[in-house]
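Project standup — Tuesday

K.O.: blocked on the structure for the chain from last sprint. Re-posting the sequence here as requested.
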Amino acid sequence: MAKRDNQILDILTAEQKVEVAELSRRLGVSEVTVRKDLDALRAKGLVVREHGFATLANPNDVGGRLAYHYDEKRRIARAAAAMVPDGSTVMVESGSCCALLARELADTRKGVTIVTNSAFIAGYVRDSTRVSVTLLGGTCQRDSQVMVGPLVRTCAQEFYVDRLFIGADGWIEGVGPTNADQMRADAVRSMAASAAQVVVLTESEKFGQRGAIPMRLPNKAIALVTDAGVSQEWREALARDGVEVIVA
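H.V.: unblocked you, prediction finished:
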């Protein structure tokens, strides 16, 4: 993503809503250029255009969260994609890093099948002929566009894959990744039962934050892909917990 696009996203993340004229002044470019940049960001589902203004997409859905730390998430997604060979089948749970992983697979891999409980991800890569998507059934949460409930478990049992990629709302030392939503956490556990390894994709700022619901993935090999901001203390703590750490 261009440097100016990142600047726009940083401004909108901090201020939520900004006039096009103000963006033009702060970025030192014409309003025509700013509108073109905003149109490109809108096409990616990151911003919403209003008359004379720009805002972030709904922060409660995946599209809105994509804008926050976009560059870090993109690097994480690329590092995770390097773990997926052509022709393989993987499970991908909901979340902004996971959505960017699916996009990276759709753009750079051939013959990959993505099994997911995310209706957002299914739509996010619908333009690609390089990947196939299998959407697990369940009850769809409106904002997150995630399938949850017992039907997810029933559907996931029909697969067994090398890797499940998941996001996290927090990470507690000695406990592991956490989620803010009980139903989504349960869906992750259901999918993890059908994977040899769980790979967590999350920014380093999540370490020490506490989602209310521990994922609780006993007897699962867990790897973590995160950004370079992860502290040495956390690297040592993760090593003690047996987590393989990949820094993007």
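K.O.: great, moving the ticket to review. The two ends are 16 Å apart (CA to CA). The longest strand covers residues 195-201.
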